[in-house]
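Problem 12. The chain below contains 155 residues. Write out its predicted structure in token notation.
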Amino acid sequence: DGKFLVSGGSGKEIIVWDAKTGDPLKKLESTEYQYEAITISPDSSLIAGNTSYGPVIIWDIASGAEVKKLTGHNLEGDSLAFRPDGKIMASGNKDKTITLWNVDTWKPISVLTGNAGRIESLCFSRDGKILANGGGGGDPTIRLWDLSSLTPIEK
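Solution.
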């Protein structure tokens, strides 16, 4: 909803900024992880950080508290995206997989496979029916996924 911006860097922190004033509002720190990708939920209540060691950390923006640590990826996380309705989050990884997470339960819905390289970018369509991923690490393919069937959309 445009209230906040978030940033990270080579350190183990995420900074939440006021989008209107540009002022820093809070710093979310981790003693364990560096963040490779960061995103904000559509309602600006949550931050997700994909870490350099596999887990995805979920933070509550209002309290600054860590809400959940999602495990399942084995390598460095490269990308994150929330579906526009905020009900599903996708995480992409150097393990060449995309995990779709139910935001209400934080349990995996599905793991999408078939990429030849790491998942460097993710984006949901405005209606939330299609997920696009961009590859890397030798796989320059942009792949579209039909989320109703959880299958790639063929040309």
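Discussion. The chain has a mean pLDDT of 90. Students who got a different answer should revisit the alignment rule from Section 12.3.
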